[in-house]
Every structure is written in structure tokens, then in C-alpha cells.
Q: What sequence folds into this?
């Protein structure tokens, strides 16, 4: 039933936060999304992503989240913090990862969608358009 509710939820307006530690992947995703009319904010580390989210919780329409990140705050930590915060919990989150976690972790993260790396840009755009209205 929850999937039906999610499918009926209209796309949101706002920026897409791309959290990805690899510069080439993060920049490629940002450029692709910007070319298709989306506003993008990117972060290379978990702490930076949380700073962006906390600074403007209403400004984000979607979080594209890589789980494996170097440093003290990885993607799982970002998602846990997001779910604990009433201001951030309702921001749709799509996990973009090369390693799909076990069922328990996956259930705990409660992501709206999952995209497995490597992915096709068309597949990414298809998922993003379910949640975000382009700014054009």
C-alpha cells in the first residue's frame, strides 16, 4: 500500500542533493541533471550533505545518496540522521550504490528507491522525475 501512496505523491519542486564521494560520478550526475532542468547541489562527504540539508530543509526535493563514503559520516549515517529529523525525514531519498545492503539494513534505511551502480543515465532520470519537477 505504501508504494501506491508514493506513486500518487506529486513530484516536488526544489534542488536535488547529490551525495557521492567520487568526483567524476558526482560531477557527471550533476551535469546530467542540470542539462535536464534540475537544480543540483552536490556534496562529497556526509558531513557536507547534512550541513546542506540542515541549512535549507525546505529547499530540497530529493536526496541521491551513496552509502559508502570515506570519513566519519557515511551515507547510512546521513540517512539515519535524516530519518530522525522531522524537518528532513520527508525528503524523498534514492540510494545510489554499488553494494546493496542486507535486508535488515535496507529496511532500516527506508529509501524511496534504489539504483544500483553502474547505472544508465536514462534510468537515473526516470527515477528522479518520479520525485522532482524540473525548474525549466
A:
Amino acid at each position: 500500500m505504501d508504494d501506491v501512496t508514493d506513486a500518487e505523491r506529486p513530484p516536488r519542486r526544489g534542488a536535488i542533493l547529490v551525495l557521492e564521494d567520487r568526483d567524476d560520478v558526482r560531477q557527471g550526475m550533476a551535469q546530467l541533471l542540470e542539462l535536464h532542468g534540475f537544480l543540483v547541489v552536490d556534496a562529497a562527504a556526509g558531513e557536507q550533505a547534512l550541513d546542506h540539508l540542515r541549512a535549507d530543509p525546505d529547499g530540497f526535493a530529493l536526496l541521491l545518496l551513496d552509502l559508502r563514503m570515506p570519513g566519519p559520516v557515511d551515507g547510512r549515517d546521513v540517512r539515519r540522521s535524516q530519518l530522525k529529523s522531522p524537518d528532513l525525514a520527508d525528503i524523498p531519498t534514492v540510494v545510489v550504490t554499488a553494494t546493496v545492503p542486507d535486508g535488515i539494513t535496507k529496511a532500516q534505511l527506508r529509501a524511496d528507491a534504489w539504483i544500483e551502480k553502474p547505472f544508465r543515465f536514462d534510468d537515473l532520470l526516470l527515477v528522479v522525475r518520479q520525485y522532482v519537477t524540473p525548474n525549466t
The mean pLDDT is 92. Residues 45 and 71 are 7 Å apart (CA to CA). The helical segments are 2-8, 23-35, 46-55, 75-84, 103-109, 121-131.
